[in-house]
Amino acid sequence: MTRSVLVTGGNRGIGLAIARELQAAGDAVAITYRSGEPPEGFFAVQCDVTSMAEVDAAFAKIEAEQGPVQIVVANAGVTKDTLLALMSEETFTSVIDTNLTGAFRVAKRAVKGMMKLRKGRIILISSVVGLSGSGGQANYAASKSGMVGLARSLARELGSRNITANVVAPGFVNTDMTAVLDEKLQETIKQNIPLKRQAEPEEIAKAVRFLASDDAAYITGAVIPVDGGLGMGH
């Protein structure tokens, strides 16, 4: 049976790989994007996750197109890396607002339909940095760490309705976000990864596909690292 899926920030990188993977699994996949042109082949809605009104409107369009959302992947995110001593309050709060409060807004709206259906999957895309920390990324790490507490609270709150909430924590992934890093820095990061390489976005997407599948029906409140061993023990 075709399921209605939403991937936020599904127009590039990890989000697009997740959208493609779930579509390949036979799901009807909608994506939201904030700027630029959406990829072809998906029902795409422009939406800024920092606005509850825009999130509401996006869900209404998606529900009209493919029915209530059964699987939501909160992937939309930003980075504004700065050392703490130089970080403005706006630089801190804007990253929290997109990454963490954005995930809250999306989950809150998705749960409406899921509770009626008495089933659903909430999958939050966090980061190895949320668990191990990273210099210059206090805002990003705090936002990604917060996702773990959010998902585990939702897992406890919604489990009786057959709704699971899990986190995928990618490591160093080959995307536009990492491509801008200095080559020397990229090499240093790779040396700290037991598998000595970056992940491809598709490798993150496969973990999401598993969590969205019937095979993962008894997994909730979990954090699945897909990081080549980078965050081991965290």
List descriptors.
8 helices, Rossmann fold, globular, 234 residues, alpha/beta, oxidoreductase
Strand and helix map with partners:
Blueprint: E1 4-8, H1 13-24, E2 28-33, E3 43-46, H2 52-66, E4 71-74, H3 89-117, E5 120-125, H4 128-132, H5 138-158, E6 163-170, H6 176-179, H7 183-191, H8 201-212, E7 223-226
Parallel strand pairs: 1-2, 1-4, 2-3, 4-5, 5-6, 6-7
Word description of this protein:
The chain has a single domain, classed as 3-Layer(aba) Sandwich (Rossmann fold), CATH 3.40.50. Strand 1 (4-8), helix 1 and strand 2 (28-33) form a beta-alpha-beta unit. The model has no long low-confidence stretch (mean pLDDT 95). It has 234 residues and is of the alpha/beta class. The protein is globular and about 50 Å long. It has 8 helices and 7 strands, in the order E-H-E-E-H-E-H-E-H-H-E-H-H-H-E. Helix content is 46%, strand content 16%. The protein has a 7-stranded parallel β-sheet with strand order 3-2-1-4-5-6-7, sandwiched between helices. It holds the Pfam family adh_short_C2. Keywords: Oxidoreductase. It comes from Actinocorallia longicatena. Belongs to the short-chain dehydrogenases/reductases (SDR) family. This is 3-oxoacyl-[acyl-carrier-protein] reductase.
